[in-house]
Structures
1.
Amino acid sequence: MSQRSEQFHTLVNVVVVIACLVVVFQPDGVAGAFIRKARESRRDKVTARTNIETLSRAPSRIGNSRTGVVLVEFSDYQCAYCRRNHPLLRDRLKEGGDWSLVIRHMPLSGPASTSAQAAIAAICAESSGRFEPMHEVLFSAKDWDEPIDWKAHAIKAGVTDLAAFEACMNSDAPRARLREDMQLAQKLQLGGTPAFIHSNGIHRGLLPLEKLDAIIGITGNRQRVP
């Protein structure tokens, strides 16, 4: 083979290698996607660790633990995935363990939607110490396309001071609380529900049983997620 031919083949090989590297490492390539995902994971870990204490302060807490693992869920009562995840979370909470679930509200249809009204009803039920049963009632509701009797939901949830509940529903306080939750969701760059924040990261979307157990630990022991 002549020297010129060897140089030509060498040049072709170099071009092929460069082309392959460009394809692999471009944003949509295999390596590019891996690098992007790793960066997002690192960013989420920093964001979660920075904000978990603030997120955990909401009074809408379910579970008896005050010192164990805290899992914060941004939720929407009309969200199909939130509704699918609810029984899993409820059943794990009933089993006990050293963890608690804090609910933050993120109505995807906006602050004037039925979902937002449901969030306000849940916030108002907190004042009577009935957040958890109201949370259950709202996730069990099926009459979203009809005029909703929030007072009837409150009665079903065991709220006894109905006058105070109705006054709360018409006041600014629960709306300010809802705005706070939605602003936190925007700060955390959460694009949808459900979204879960714990001390070691953020999980977006439906939370599988295995991931939940990895976060909280089946026996309630603290356990980090790799």
Note: The chain has two domains: 3-46, 56-216.
2.
Amino acid sequence: MIRQTRPRDINTPNGRIDIIEVAGEIGTPSEPVSIYTKELAKISSIKARSIYADIDGAGVGPFVARMETTGTAAGTGDFGGTNRFRYIDYQSQTPIPGVYIKGDLVGTLSFTNGVSEPIVVEGSMKPGSLISFTSLADFPNESPISEIRDGRVVIKGDMESGAVIRAETNVVSRDNAPGQESIRIEGTMASGALISIGQSLALDSGVQSRIAVVPSLGLAGQIILNAGNATTNAWAGTINIGGTTLTPDPYSATAASLGGGSVGTAPFRLHATDCTPPSGDGLALASAPSPTSPVYIRIYGPLTFTGAPLTIERSTLNDATWRDVTSCFTVDADPANATRLVVTPNDGPTQNGWTYRVKPILTGTNALRCALVTGNPPVTDFTYTVCVGTQEAADINGDAEVNTADLTYFLGRFGSGGDSACSA
């Protein structure tokens, strides 16, 4: 047992640590304490007003029964540093095993195996903070789990931009009681915050694992399932955002109705009802996409690409031939949202009587790919369509009437040299 006011570095490469209990703070934000043990050494308890520590060990690291910040003085209770453990010892005799942080998480909590006990942060996850379950080299007779299994991660404050919760494999739970979600965010998930599940939000023994972001409009960040791109049926559990339970994608709820963010299963699909205009819509010519009014194509997850990742064609009801007009448009990433593409006509508005068809490129250097997913696979194939104006051949100006105004419009275009190849 170590009882100090402010401990120095603790190095026990050939031994174990039972209890570290400190009346004040362990370390400072600028000078975290180093605590190092032999492989699989057990740390029964670490307790202090605040903890700023780099805790690690040989091989797969130590395992811990309970860590706690008490926050007994104003401005204390935070947990920081870079910390790596094998798992939380659920068989410990320590009362209520788990990790309990009275303030904010400002560092890293990494487990090289699964967790089956609570991790509770009463404050917020600050930018750059991380809770992860990632598999390292195994040791004899035990398989790596690297998942949240019957445990809980509870953030009572916000997940701020840059905060990440990551499970390399699955989220598995056998507890369906209200408020007992496997991952529960009681504040908001900011834009740039991420929950990444490597494989499945699972169904186990008839019980659905669950993720909840409690506030209405609370999801501005991203939740990704199958981030390891190695499984199917990745969304077998439930995800609830502000009281809205989402069905596995494609779900109809718009990003705006959730707070601006999305939930996506890799490889990501088209969110057809959340494009602008929605896929399949018909537009009056006055509302046709133009250089100042582009099309926004939304996918359920973040995107990455180089070059032009889409092919764009158009056709009329009177002529089923699809003509490639990709060169007539510019495709950009939306700087405000990584799940959207901005498709802008280069030469005036799109023209009356045409249906435009957009498809992703799925191979080669221009492929539209999933960001934040292992291997950056191409998105799931999709077709986005929008019809501009009317399909009546004589209704040249697209006002849904055939009259002298169509002749005037035609003569005006003829006198000015006609439409370009992109606006014909």
Note: The CA atoms of residues 397 and 409 lie 6 Å apart.
